[in-house]
Amino acid sequence: MAKRLDHVIVIDIESTCWDGGFPPKGETNDIIEIGLTPLELSTGRRLEKRSILVRPERSKVSPFCTQLTTLTQEQVSTGIRFKDACKILEDEYLSQERLWASYGDYDRRQFDKQCRDEGVRYPFGPSHLNAKTLFAIGRGLPNEVGLPQAMALLGLKLEGTHHRGHDDAWNIAAVLWEVLKKMRTG
Questions:
Q1: 10 Å Cβ neighbour count for 100?
Q2: C-alpha–C-alpha distance, residues 139 and 150, integer Å
Q3: Which of 179, 173, 181 is nearest to 49 (CA)?
Q4: SS3 27
Q5: Which of 51, 84, 91, 175 has the greatest number of beta carbons closer than 10 A?
Q6: Are 115 and 87 in contact (CB under 8 A)?
Q7: Structural contact between residues 7 and 38, judged by C-beta atoms closer than 8 angstroms
Q8: Can you give the pLDDT of all 186 residues of the chain as single tens digits?
């Protein structure tokens, strides 16, 4: 259970990826960017848009991945180690004590898998909010929809570059706030 309900830490990660979805032999998905936006629950203010670049240690950034995310191998090679990124989440954002959200379940699963694979402490507490599912349920949709479609349904303009972690986290926080606002007003 989240101990602090002052902010929701909205996270969107980018990971190494390949055309066709499968990594080359000997490689596995690595988180290469942690996008982060704390959403202040009393006001709906998005407090920060942050990108933490993470140096992949088990794979390389493919041309497909660069085309999708705009991130290059050269950029992420200057990033920090995954365990250091997790420490930033815990120390600077109190991620063990706060609810965190992502758009879909991929981010939670990838964090869990990479932490287990690398022997790194999972940086979050037990409370995760899947904003994609919450949005679909809140709107009475028959299926979950992608972030650009959710924003269009809300009349919001996509800000920044889709598939960049910090821009997507910023946009997810806007969608999440609209859903929470509607829940509060009935």
A1: 25
A2: 10
A3: 173
A4: coil
A5: 175
A6: no
A7: yes
A8: 668 999 999 999 999 999 999 999 999 999 999 999 999 999 999 999 999 999 999 999 999 999 999 999 999 999 999 999 999 999 999 999 999 999 999 999 999 999 999 999 999 999 999 999 999 999 999 999 999 999 999 999 999 999 999 999 999 999 999 999 998 886
**Residue 64 main-chain phi, psi, to 5 deg:** -60, -45
Helical H segments across 29-146, by residue range: 63-69, 73-77, 82-93, 106-118, 131-139
Closest CA to 86 of 32, 35, 125, 122: 122
Cα 47 to chain centroid distance, Å, stands at 15
CB 33 within 8 A of CB 76: yes
**CB neighbour list of residue 89: distance below 8 Å, 6 or more residues apart:** 9, 34, 36, 95, 123, 124
Among residues 29, 26, 24, 28, the alpha carbon closest in space to that of 13 is found at 29
State which amino acid sits at residue 150: A
Which tokens is 149 given? 């479609």
Using CA atoms, how far apart are residues 73 and 32, in angstroms rounded to an integer?
9
DSSP 15: E
